[in-house]
Amino acid sequence: MKNEEISIKTKKHLSKTLKKLMLKKPLSKITISEIVRSADVNRKTFYYHFESINELFKWTLEEEAVHVVKNLDVKKDYKKAIEFVIKYIETNNDILNCAYDSMGREGLKEFFYDDFYEIVEKLVETIVEKMDEVVENDFKDFLAKMYAGAIANMIIDYFSEKKNIDTQKIVNYIMIVIGSSIKASIEAYVKEINEAYEKIKSL
């Protein structure tokens, strides 16, 4: 087995151990000593792979959810990405609530935001291409930031409120809102730019 494969296997083992401990206590109460003892590895092994428990937790989220979503062809079918995220929340509700109780809303939002920004950025770019319009990068960046923040907040709301999720309904709502509002925003932006250009020409 190659070193890289061994490293991934060890990371997954530590991740699985952390998730088991998170079912029993808040993330902030878990120590590295507990993790290495439960995983039957030494502290040196832990620190070789992760600098902190928070880094291990973030790696867990990225390995199980974010990387999967990123590898989906968002440009062709972003519905699959949305469905996967919602189902992941349902399956890992206890773990996410444990992290929420320890880190607070803003702390957990940071884990989601950057990765969802990349996903939404691809979607915005796809819509712009389909519309065959010229849109400044700063406006596309603005849209990606706004929707990434909204999605991150929505995800936290669903599992922190501890309510049952109607997966299909939520997915449909997101599809309707994102698909139509991003397109409408771009149309309004292009219209404003064109009107400003016409005013300059008429001077």
Write structural notes for this entry.
The chain has eight helices and no strands. It is mainly alpha-helical. It is elongated. 23% of the residues are buried. The model has no long low-confidence stretch (mean pLDDT 85).
Which percent range describes the beta-strand content?
A: under 5%
Q: Please, how many helices?
A: 8
Our count of domains comes out at 2
Q: What is the global morphology?
A: elongated
Low-pLDDT windows of residues: none
Q: How many distinct beta strands?
A: 0
In helices, the fraction of residues equals over 70%
* Major sheet characteristics: none
Task: Detail the topology: elements first, then pairings.
Elements: H1 3-22, H2 32-39, H3 43-49, H4 53-71, H5 78-91, H6 93-131, H7 137-160, H8 167-202
Note the main attributes of this structure.
mainly alpha, 82% helix, 2 domains, Arc Repressor Mutant, subunit A
Short overview:
Keywords: DNA-binding. With about 200 residues, this protein is mainly α.
